[in-house]
Amino acid sequence: MLVLGIETSCDETSAAVVRDGREILSNVVASQIALHRPYGGVVPELASRHHLEVIDTIIAESLNEAGVRLDDIEGVAATCGPGLASSLLIGLTAGKAIALARNLPFIGINHLEAHLVSPWLSARRNFEPNVSLIVSGGHTILVHARAVGDHTVLGQTLDDAAGEAFDKVAKLLGLGYPGGPEIEKYARDGNANAISLPRGKLHDPDLDFSFSGLKTAVLYWLRKQSSAESGESSAGNFRVLPAGSRLSALDSRLLPDFCASFQQAVVEVLVGKTVAAARACRVRAVTVSGGVACNTALRDQLAAACQRHHIELLVAGRKLCTDNAGMIAGLAFHKLRTGLRSPMDLDAQPNLRLA
Ligand code: KG4
Ligand code: ZN
Hints:
The chain is built from eleven helices and ten strands. The protein has helices at 33-36, 44-66, 85-102, 111-123, 162-172, 179-187, 212-230, 255-281, 296-308, 318-321, 326-336; strands at 2-7, 12-19, 23-31, 75-81, 106-110, 130-135, 140-147, 150-156, 285-289, 312-315. The radius of gyration is 21 Å and the shape is globular. It starts with a strand and ends in a 19-residue tail after the last helix. The protein binds 5'-O-[(R)-(carboxyoxy)(hydroxy)phosphoryl]adenosine and zinc ion. Zinc ion binds next to helix 4.
């Protein structure tokens, strides 16, 4: 079955053609990062306007690249939530319109459930049962996945998502948006043990996460350095930065150590909790997806920890980690083939959860 998938939940306009939930014939992603960069984050109005401007072209490109015509498509899927309401509406409406005009089966897809199956697209096989870590800018969730549509949420962040923590700390440092890749870039040359930062909830018995304490610790640490400098005292490596202003002047010599220490604090918690979840559920496989799963330190440390515990690890390929329509079409196949359909009055659901 050839499925056309559409994804516009946040700041990526994407369309993909996937055969039988496995074979990605095309996965076109138009990123809006440059559009939002000057604002340090996604501006919803700009995002939806841009989705509207490019959606037809992106869909046409995905068909072209796949070497198929609309006549060949046998099912249509679009993200219906969670995400930005005005962004979701663009892709969802485009998908419904195509399905209606072509009399094709249509299904609305939960973006988080699509992240969950994205590692399977890389491996071209299922890894069930497994424990899956979804770690992105909006979510940090641990899931026990038994089969498509059969999963239990084991834990999630109580405050900031891991990607959000990367983005916020990068903003404090005056680095670019999105913050994850920026911090990773500097962290490569740094000492991860240079600065002691908290590992929120790492040793708690539950499987929830909390990153707001880490963010606050970073803020206080930077401020302390700044005030030390304002008194022209000890550190001497930071410029004076009043509370609330951007701590953009971290000395370039300290930036790598700082970024490496911050990254390590996040990675250690993600790895520790994921392995704890796998052991608690007695599964032999772990899968990982979402934008933060692009992070090499996370990938490497998860691989080492899983090896130690004899757990098979499957991390989605980098292109499938960040938002893309391939994962939407991939999941849609599994739903459509069991006869599941969404009604044409399906609305965008900005707060949709992973049930
Ligand atoms: O999955 P995604 O594209 O969008 C959401 O659904 O949120 O994830 C984007 C998030 C951003 O917070 C970004 O900073 C983070 O993923 N990210 C990274 C890296 N690449 C992207 N975080 C850490 N290291 C990276 N290399
Ligand atoms: Zn996402």
